[in-house]
Amino acid sequence: MGVIIFNGISSQEYNIQVEKFPDYETPEKDYDIIHVPGKNGDIVIDKGSYQNATRTYQISVGSLTKEFTPMANSISEWLQSASGYARLEDSYEPEYYRLAMYQDSGVIENLLGSAGRITIAFNCKPQRFLKSGDQSIIFTSAGRLFNQTRFKASPIIIVNGSGSGELRLGGYTTIISNINSSITINSEIQDAYSGTVNRNSDITLNNGFPKLVPGENEISFSGGVTSVEVIPKWWTL
What's the pLDDT score for residue 38? Predict the structure, then answer.
């Protein structure tokens, strides 16, 4: 039987069992489709993004020592434990995780007062994040990062040093006017900060927030930058 971990809580804590391998739903790509009267075919505008996908599990819970109602309540508490998106992972794809939320209502089937069954659906962001992409890679000199996926990753970059400096990552250049020990450049949320202090005014971006394109990405730095820590955030669909 499979295991689900949602919002840091394992389904095993509630005697929940996943009854079958979940189906895989491909995210829908965002397009604008425009038809021009008198012109054959539609004009397709690719927005470069994807819509949410659904991850569905058939689960059951049963115990020789518990009645149906407290078991059903434990399932409800588990599913409602997060506000908004939370980390979702399972034993079927152990190298990946998703960001998901549970927003559906559902009927938990009562099986003879001693067990329950329900199909649950998580509303997931389209990315399947590789767990390896959460591991920090530290550079004290120029180096390379290789993106094995087909998608641009939005890394978290921690720049260490003092004074001003320049960071070059592939075709992206970031000029930092005041490093002041360290500054974090978060490409996913497009923000720069040190702890809780906003630092966007201290960076100048050439070509936008840095991305890790598919294939090889060269990284180098100069000026007051002494080291760079990269959390690559690799993902696929």
Answer: 87
CATH 2.60.120.860, applies to 132-236: yes
Cβ 114 vs Cβ 46: under 8 Å: no
Q: What is the pLDDT of residue 130?
A: 98
Largest CA distance in the chain: 71
Residue 177: φ, ψ to 5°: -85, -20
Predicted confidence (pLDDT) per residue in 83-110, tens digit: 999 999 999 999 999 999 998 777 787 8
Residues in Cβ contact with 104 at an 8 Å cutoff, skipping those fewer than 6 apart: 120, 121
pLDDT score of 64 = 67
Query: What's the pTM value of the predicted model, to 2 decimals?
Result: 0.88
Burial class (CB in 10 A: 0-12, 13-18, 19+), 63: middle
- Per the DSSP assignment, residues forming a β-bridge with 12 are none
**Distance, C-alpha 137 to centroid of its chain:** 18
CATH of region 4-126, choose from 2.40.30.200, 3.30.110.10, 3.40.350.10, 2.40.50.580 = 2.40.30.200
Return the domain boundaries, the chain.
Answer: 4-126, 132-236
